[in-house]
Structure formats: structure tokens, C-alpha cells
Design goal:
The chain is an alpha/beta fold. The chain has a single domain, classed as Rossmann fold (3-Layer(aba) Sandwich), CATH 3.40.50. It has six helices and nine strands, in the order H-H-E-E-H-E-H-E-H-E-E-H-E-E-E. A seven-stranded mixed sheet has the order 5-4-3-6-7-8-9, with helices on one face. It has a two-stranded antiparallel sheet with strand order 1-2. The longest helix is centred in the N-terminal third of the chain and has 14 residues.
């Protein structure tokens, strides 16, 4: 049977097995991935590839991340159901939807109006009531709603994201790709409760850069 002829359930099962084999083993994360229809977040041109474990292009020169990376970053945050999570870079909204199934509240910031509007439509379709959106400069975070239990950055910061780290609770966790080149390192910052952080480099990744300000036309 060709992949195109397989049922969505079979293709999703294969994707979940692929994530497990790569180290995404948190049951909450896997259940969130399994319960989120990635095809809803994928452009029409690429819908037949929605169940692939690969990044795909979306509008405004951005991407919907590889499911493995989505799963790994979500797992690395160690989210509790009581947590308030700040996401920088809404994009298609796929990662946001995953977070919303695990966290109490998700605050998500996007610099492209087109992407934000499309993502908000998908959240409405899925009935996600614990997602709060903002069109704005992701690098500045959301200070009015700080501090957050967790922060996820889905674009590559050129260096330590000090503004976002300052919006974490003392024992919070931030996960972000860090680096200026085409290949970055996925880094986790874990607050020590005293204003400092334990820093851990996880894997090499490829993300679009985190840009200052908001897009003027898109």
C-alpha cells in the first residue's frame, strides 16, 4: 500500500513511532502530537506531506517545524498542567496547539500579521480556548504578562535571550535555538531559583532567525 493510500491514523502512528525512536518519549507530548491534526497547519501544496517528520514551508518565508523538533522542544520544557507558557513565533500555530494541550495558558507572539490571522483561525477551528495571541516583537517577549513558568522560542536568537530570560519565574525553563549561522544549538536554560541558570545544549538545529520589530507588510 502506498503512503498516499494509507489512512491518516496509520500515518500518524508511524510518525509517533518515529518520534519515540528519536527520544521523544514523554506521554503528554506524544498524546498532544497525536491529537493535533498537522494537516490543518500545512499549506495546501504540502498537505500530502503533513505526516512526514520534516519541516515544511509556510507563508512569509517561514516554516512549520519538523515534528521531532516540536516534540523535543516541548519535552525539554517539562510543562506542568498549571504552567503559563510564552511562545515566541506563532508561525502556523502548530507548536502553539501542541503546547495548549499540555499547559494551562499559552501566550504566543508573532511578527507577521498574515501568519497571526491564519493561526487564530486554526485555533478557533480546534476550539482552543487557552491560547492568547499578540502581534508584536517576539524578542521583547510579553512583559505585561510576565513572569512565565516556561518560555519557548521558535526562531534563532543570535545570542543569549536576556529579555526573555528576565520574564521567567526564578525556577522557570526557557528553550531556544541560539546562534547566528545556518546551524544553531538548541539550548535549555533552567532557573536555579536565585536569579541564575543552568545551561544545557541539546542538539544542533536549523531555524529561521529571530528578527527585531514587526513585519511592515505581511
Amino acid at each position: 500500500m502506498s503512503e498516499e493510500a494509507e489512512s491518516p491514523e496509520t500515518r500518524m502512528a508511524r510518525l509517533i513511532l518515529a518520534l519515540r525512536s528519536q527520544g521523544v518519549v514523554d506521554a503528554k507530548v506524544l498524546n498532544a502530537v497525536e491529537g493535533t491534526p498537522r494537516e490543518l497547519f500545512t499549506p495546501e501544496l504540502f498537505k500530502e506531506r503533513a505526516f512526514e517528520d520534516s519541516a515544511l514551508p509556510i507563508a512569509c518565508g517561514q516554516t512549520i517545524s519538523q515534528p521531532f523538533i516540536v516534540g523535543l522542544m516541548t519535552q525539554a520544557l517539562k510543562i506542568d498542567r498549571r504552567d503559563r507558557v510564552l511562545e515566541i513565533g506563532t508561525g502556523s500555530g502548530y507548536q502553539t496547539a501542541i503546547l495548549s494541550k499540555i499547559a494551562r495558558l499559552v501566550y504566543t507572539v508573532e511578527r507577521y500579521r498574515t501568519l497571526m490571522g491564519e493561526a487564530e483561525g486554526r485555533f478557533k477551528t480546534l476550539g482552543l480556548t487557552n491560547v492568547i495571541t499578540r502581534f508584536g516583537d517576539g524578542g521583547a517577549g510579553w512583559p505585561e504578562q510576565a513572569p512565565f513558568d516556561r518560555v519557548m522560542v521558535t526562531a534563532a536568537a543570535p545570542g543569549e535571550p536576556t529579555a526573555l530570560l528576565s520574564q521567567l519565574k526564578p525556577a522557570g525553563i526557557l528553550v531556544a535555538p541560539i546562534g547566528k549561522g545556518p546551524v544553531q544549538v538548541l539550548r535549555r536554560y533552567v532557573g536555579d531559583g536565585k536569579g541564575g541558570f543552568a545551561v544545557e545544549d541539546l542538539i544542533e538545529v536549523r531555524f529561521v532567525p529571530l528578527l527585531d520589530g514587526v513585519a511592515k507588510e505581511l
